[in-house]
Records
---
Amino acid sequence: MIDLKSKTSQRKRRRTCWDRLRARRLESRRRGQADLATSVVMQLLALFAMLFGRMPLVPNIPMPVPYTPPPLSPGEAYRRGVARRLGVPSRYVDIVLAQGTVPYPVLFEHIRRGGKSRDDALSLLRERAPESCRDWLDYVRDWGLWSQLMLCYVRDGLDEDTDVRLLKSTLAWLEVQNSEASVPGPNGAGASATPGTGPDKSEPEDDPTPPRP
């Protein structure tokens, strides 16, 4: 019988050189794959380094852009120029050019609305109302007494009727101011300003001097 094991071992021994060559090729292939992987990793690292190098260390914070109002149209620029020459707010330019003044109904309506229109209307009301009323109008503006001011407007009357109410309100305000100013200071605080009605004083004793021992 032929020994199969001996034949197989002989065949293996005969292919030893081929096995070595094949092993070298496999090792070379593995090294090539390892070198290729290393090359890929190095390229990725270089790419990441380039990307991170371009990124700023501190993130860019957007700076607030200051508000720039849009340019005025030619018509609006003309109205404002006319308003400066007339000395009135631009909203009243057309009325002043047509009537020469702003009527009381328009002024009191804008005062009732409030906001910027109230400020513009009050500035013209101070110029049109009797001069004696200007201090009271300033007082109304400072303390926000708009309801009292609206009571001075006579809707179905003449402008003179409104002037009379403005003067009466100013006179009543002045009387209150004068009465408050006549009240004594800290030494007599709370005392009445009418002579003879002040706090009672203690009557002196018959013999204020105590007897000597």
---
Amino acid sequence: MLESIQKKIESNAIFYLLSYAILIRIAMLLLYADYSIFPDSGGYIELANDLSDFNLTGYSGKRTPGYPSIIALVGNNLNWVKVIQHIFGIISTLLLFDLVKRETQSKFTAFLAAFFATSFIHLIFFEAAILTETTALFVLLAVVWFIRVKSCLNVRTSILNIIAISILFAYLYLVKPMFIYAPIFFALFFLMKNFQENYKKALFKSSLVLLIPLFTFYSWSSLNEKNIGVFGSTYFLGFNLAQTATPFFELVPEENQTIRDIFVKHRDSIASQTSKSITMSIWAAHDELVYATHLKPPQLSKKLGDISIDLFKQHPDLYLKQVSISWLDFWTESILWKPKQIKSVAIKNILMGTWLYIQQWIALVINIMFLYFSIKHLKRIFKFRIKSFDFNLFLVSIVLLGSVAQAMITYGSNSRFSFPYFSLIIYFVFINLFTLKTKNAAHT
């Protein structure tokens, strides 16, 4: 009976998967009719309005235009943005299915992986939020899928494929600036993988893939420098670094006493409220710091960044401790939603209980399994050297580097940082489970 069910699923895998993904989102639209606005949403909406007016003169520099461009394209109608994000979620389900199928040659395993992924309710609720997470997940997955399907890690891949992946990387950066590391790592990985086979082509194509992302980074950062006097993707970097320095900010020298004392005062006040996290203390202190220093937010951010970097240099042990805490938190999953928008109390309680008592723990187990399988895969570098430079090593490295990059730069009370990698993590766990199952079957 189980075999017949498996064969039926395999013969209609795409139809069943697509139907399931669509039905879940229709149910979401019926139960959770509105979109969700969070504190970070305002910055994206603000830039979308400026893009709609075709005027970025004097823009505040809060966000990059990748996600706001989607809002602008639908006339700033946030209900349509939510629909688009649901469509992104459906396509992501199909991309994940295809990735697993290509690796395992098993439609049933691919169906299980994609079905499993799209069943997580935090994924569906992120699709209703006016935030970058769903778009970042979709674009990152699309980038990785394109690399796999078009064999972009092969030195013989076409120039058109390299240009296409360069454009995709550039847009990924514009959606979420942290991903500027992705094209840089791709170029280095490509060069190392193909250097012995054809170093001239490897060098040329690895340089070409960097062209559009780095040009995009420079252009947007230059626009910010013109508008706010700070060269960078956004002006938030200094605030982010200050978040990492929060637990030991009292060690700031006397020359920055005013900033130090205001920041520490707000941090300690929040710490006295045991239900709140001190990680967002800089935002509680923000208005008073602006008033006391007479600095505009971009300049205050730059000052805080300089102070924090000096603090890291003076106390590397405390910095590394905080980075370690942040890295561990990366592997937890969060849900962002507005429960009050669900009219049915029973359904709201079921969804809340499903996440709190079941799914968030399953997600944590999946992340731990990913780390376990990643360590096993990384060991192959030392055994097989150049032969280990395969697609799965690239994927593992992209996720692990992202976790480290985030931990080194910022620490917050939310765990949204790992969300864009969610599908990639599930892909890697499922193909490893399939490999284990296949090996066990061969031994029996």
---
Amino acid sequence: MVNFTTVTTLLAIAAAATALPGKALHARQADVSCLDNDGVFVAPGIVSEAVDCINELALKGSQDCTAGLTTSFCRRGNTQITGIFTKAAAGGPATSETTTTTCQDVAQAAGRIMDFCSQGSGNVKGQTTAFANTDMLVDIRLVEQ
């Protein structure tokens, strides 16, 4: 028979060990830009389309997602999740023309954008760095057909 007190204690320890400290959570939120100050240059994508893309990328797991200057990782309808190699985009000295992380990492970054930038209207737009590769910017937005 399982001891309820032991199970509860183990769950509490696991939750405490995996929770982000307040400063780390704030830092992650600060890394996300909802592109609110871009005027009309970036239109928001549709939340349901972005969710489909995030699920697709998550299913790819440890498969490589490689970004160049701008690389589309997934598009549903008019909503696109894009990877941008930040060194190439900045025009600075890039050691290579691409950067790579896992597709799961891209999905997690896109999920973070969804957490902080989804609008009550059912739209989303924003960008943040990939978790494991800060040279890659992950972006969600509306694209023209």
---
Amino acid sequence: MKYLKINYLFSSVLLLFGLLITSPSIAQYSPYFENYALSEYNAGNQNWGITKDDDGKVYAANNNGLLVYDGIKWYLHQLPNKTTIRSVLAHKDRIYTGSYQEFGYWKKNSKGALVYHSLSHLVDSKEFLNEEFWQIITYKDAIIFRSFWDIYIYKDNKVTQVKPYSTILSIDIVNDVMYVSSLKDGIFILKNDTLEKHIVDDYMVDTKVVSINDYQNKLFVSTSLKGCFLYDSGKLRP
């Protein structure tokens, strides 16, 4: 009887332990985070953007240049003009970056070292004054670089410049449609390299749109100070 008692107690403990680790109502999953101090990555104290390539390497847009983390060590790659990198995007075998009056991509050479290739020469230098690129996204078969003043579409080794009506705050892709949010003139969509007005409403005047997403076949518009809105069938409601 004593032997059976001990085994019953042991079985009960195992069952309780199993419930604790499998039941979502009892045990909650805690995701793993790791913080990296400035002394570890040894670059500027501000990081503006982050991306990851297919190999798992992490790239950060840093005050001092392009930060690369391979899971063990950090590496810093500086632009030729050593300006701050504001945006970064890993796409296929290239790492696109945007800076002050400069944008382009990094690509590995035959020795595996990252080499920078500027695309700024594809744009008229007069149109490039004081431009700073804060967002880079892929759209269909093009790469989109966004500053506060203009949109630059890179495709087939050519750059097409699209000028908005007012300051651009964000760009979002929803169901293969590109939405461009401006500060004073509402939200536009990009068609054939031109901007067409899509959402014009008093709510959108002097409004900083943070993001646009799909929600139950409607557009979910998030702002920084005015809350969130749903857009459906030509109507915008809080």
